[in-house]
Amino acid sequence: MHERGPQTLFGLRLYDGTSRKLRTGPERIVHRTRNQAASTDTLLQALKMKSIQNNVVSVAILSAALALSFNAPARAHGVEGHAAKAGTVNKEQMTFGIAGEAKAVNRTVQVSMSDAMRFTPALIEVKQGETIKFVIKNEGKVMHEFVIGSKDSLAEHAAMMLKFPNMQHDEPYMAHVQPGGKGQIVWTFNRAGDFDFACLIAGHYQAGMVGRIQVLATPAAAAKAAK
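Structure (tokenized):
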């Protein structure tokens, strides 16, 4: 008896009646379509789960970053004075003096700052060679700072702060003071002349928050500076 081959219908192969059935014709197409649909559903589910996992990770990272930003101490204009800062003080000679040593302080000058954009006192007289400890109190409800410098350097820095209000700066002749807080500067005035101090927070300098320091020459200090 001859083995009957696969039957055809309109040119499409049908089941051959044996245990090894072949899916042909429209049934094969439907089966393939169902498999493709199932694969697509599986892929979509996988992508959806991956997206959810990525979102969870992103939220976790963002939460950690926010926590760090809130818990970290403020920088630039957010530091409450320089009395507690660690590390070696930068003792660079400036036209208006040099960073002083606490053990060499000759006297202490109290300065207050207000939200009226004013310093009290607004004029400070110093003898050349004196090391002054400035204790600066912020009487206001907003951040203020006390920065010593020449008139030109302070004006230039204040203009830059208007353009870049979050710019960081931290020098021994600066004290950034939180509302109600205190800051300190120890400074040696080894150069005679007229200098300024100011608040360089954006808009404060322009509102008139500026004071003057007059350093009076003395023969002994002048001779020492000339060596």
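The chain has three helices and twelve strands. Confidence is low (pLDDT under 50) at residues 8-33, 59-86.
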